[in-house]
Amino acid sequence: MKTIVFAHRGASKLAPENTMPAFELALEMGADGIETDVQLTKDQIPVLIHDENVRRTTDGTGFVQDYTFEEIKNLDAGSWFSEKFSGTTIPSLEEFLRWVKGKNLKINLEIKNNIIDYKDIETIIYDHLKTHNLTDRTVISSFNSKSIKHFSHLEESITTGFLTSQKMKDLIDYAKDQGANGLHIKYRLLSRSLIEHAHNHNLYVAVFTVNRPLQIKRCFHLKCDGIFTDVPNIAKQIQESV
Ligand code: G3P
Ligand code: CA
């Protein structure tokens, strides 16, 4: 099967990560899917932002969980990247799902609860996906195995990927035990034997974050099931040429 090219936080090399302009650009560049990070505001609204703290990617300070949705919407999430994007806001999951619904794109929602344990984040996300009838083209991923387990119990048919950047002795058995359908691994963990081993155990393998042409090529060559890249335009060009 063809490797799925996910735009990592959208087309985040050329637009501010995890914003609607980055998602729109990813679509224009021909990405097969979009990866984005989900956290909860104080009033439990799922929003798309990578860090627990808003400092790096907005003009605000402090933690996502200490902002109400109305407050977080007042932050500028584009100017830090370029003045061209000034006035861009942090999208809610709802806003993203409404946009992605009519598009031919896969969705990867990463639950960012490895540092903050957001109460009920799994069921909140699941309810949104059900409402929009998007469970069948969504992959849920997390570094937190509790969330993978939780999701695989919520609905067996939803695809889940266990994220890891660490070498783990029993990675495949561990991921299977959590009910994961796949492994989302850091590029340095990639090897032909890991792919074969995972496939033999019915687990798919997706690799992050792959931006260098030679690394992208290697992922295609090894028949990875998915890659996460900040440069989906380059990845798609390479894919067409191999
Ligand atoms: O989902 C792959 C990748 O996004 C995980 O790492 O830190 O970019 O969220 P990070
Ligand atoms: Ca992520």
Largest pleated sheet: 8 strands, parallel, barrel
Shape: globular
> What is the β-strand count?
9
**Unreliable parts:** none
Alpha carbon gyration radius: 17 Å
Q: How do the helices and strands follow one another from N- to C-terminus?
A: EHEEHHEHEHEHEHEHEH
Mean pLDDT across all residues, rounded? Answer: 97
Ligands bound here? SN-glycerol-3-phosphate, calcium ion
* Beta strand %: 15-25%
End-to-end span in angstroms?
Answer: 14 Å
Helix content: 25-40%
Please list the strands of the largest sheet in the order they lie side by side. 1-2-4-5-6-7-8-9
Enzyme class: hydrolase
Keywords: Hydrolase
Pfam family, one: GDPD
GO molecular function: glycerophosphodiester phosphodiesterase activity
Give keywords.
single chain, 242 residues, alpha/beta, TIM Barrel, eight-stranded parallel β-barrel, 9 strands, globular, binds SN-glycerol-3-phosphate, binds calcium ion, Glycerophosphoryl diester phosphodiesterase
Secondary structure layout plus pairing:
Elements: E1 4-8, H1 20-28, E2 33-40, E3 46-48, H2 69-72, H3 93-101, E4 106-111, H4 121-131, E5 138-142, H5 145-154, E6 159-164, H6 171-177, E7 182-186, H7 192-200, E8 204-208, H8 213-221, E9 226-229, H9 232-241
Parallel strand pairs: 1-2, 1-9, 2-4, 4-5, 5-6, 6-7, 7-8, 8-9
Antiparallel strand pairs: 2-3
Helix pairs in contact: 8-9
The structure holds SN-glycerol-3-phosphate and calcium ion.
Organism: Aquibacillus albus
Pfam family, one: GDPD
Protein name: Glycerophosphoryl diester phosphodiesterase
